[in-house]
Specification:
16 strands, 4-stranded antiparallel sheet, single chain, 10% helix, 3 helices, mainly beta, Tachylectin-2, Chain A, globular
Length: 299
């Protein structure tokens, strides 16, 4: 067959395939149906951790948990700014009516030099267990305290930070970028808002074996809009931001950034935010948990 004949044959095949695609009655799926799954959730069970102290401090301020399947352990992150830490909890009779949770150990988070963070230096909120048995932890930061938001990878055994992920400068408050003593902490034009920084964190390793050396994806979302994204009109939803990373043992890459449009805040809400996200499938669907604080009408 000559080159001309092969070219003509390929052209006919392409036209035939195009005719088949346009001639068949393919189902029409709206963009909303592709973006939002028709699912619902029911509360299966709950557990109330008894009031207690561990290592001389009250147990509380739990902001995130991660389940370690092989070890049958839960890691519970405390967002205490004075002593940021996580608890290792043993599960007994999981998936049964006699489910219990017992705290086994507490691990304090440490800086790159192996020292505990100074009070107010870290505000841990989001948590995920990686295939390499490390913990990814997001920190909200504080414009008022001139503390930058951060995403770090921590050693599971020691709590010491190993890697700091890169952040776009637009997330950093002015008060942190300009540490001149003459700059007032309240003079802010960009970056995360106070107590509305990185709250939600999730990873996706189900695309492969989930081995130590296999790349995986990390998604981190802000609890509220960046200051430059904020709109006070009551009929305009808040637009939070989601960062998408590809992580592997050799390089951490920020791949993309997306807006997360929240539902409108309920009437009377004084604080409305995105508390957590979870991966649902390989098609990029997430489960987002939004919550609000406000006033309840009496009468």
């Amino acid at each position: 067959m000559s080159i001309t004949q092969r070219w003509f044959s390929a052209l006919v095949s392409s036209l035939l395939a195009l005719w088949l695609l346009t001639g068949c009655a393919l189902p029409r799926v709206s963009a909303e149906d592709r973006l939002f799954l028709d699912i619902s959730l029911d509360l299966a069970d709950s557990y109330v951790l008894p009031q207690q102290s561990f290592d001389g401090e009250p147990v509380g301020g739990i902001s995130a948990i991660a389940y370690d399947v092989p070890r049958n352990r839960l890691y519970a992150l405390s967002d205490n700014r004075d002593h940021p830490r996580f608890y290792t909890c043993q599960l007994t009779n999981f998936n049964s009516a006699n489910f219990t949770l017992t705290i086994e150990a507490v691990t304090y988070l440490k800086d790159i030099d192996g020292n505990r963070y100074a009070p107010g230096e870290l505000d841990p909120e989001g948590l995920a267990l990686t295939p390499g048995n490390t913990l990814l932890i997001s920190s909200e930061g504080s414009p008022q305290g001139r503390i930058a938001p951060a995403i770090g990878e921590y050693d599971l055994a020691t709590g010491q930070i190993q890697t700091v992920l890169p952040l776009p400068q637009r997330y950093i408050p002015d008060s942190v970028l300009n540490l001149d003593a003459s700059t007032q902490a309240g003079e802010q034009n960009q970056g995360i808002q106070e107590n509305l920084g990185f709250e939600a964190l999730a990873i996706n390793v189900s695309s492969g074996t989930g081995g130590v050396y296999e790349p995986y994806r990390l998604f981190v979302a802000t609890e509220g809009p960046l200051l430059q994204d904020l709109d006070f009109a009551p009929d305009i939803p808040y637009k939070n931001r989601v960062l998408h990373y590809l992580l592997d043992p050799y390089q951490n890459t920020l791949i993309s950034e997306h807006l997360y449009e929240m539902d409108l805040a309920p009437t009377g809400a004084i604080l409305h935010g995105l508390a957590e996200i979870a991966m649902l499938d390989q098609s990029g669907h997430f489960l987002g948990l939004e919550r609000s604080y406000g006033f309840k009408a009496l009468g």
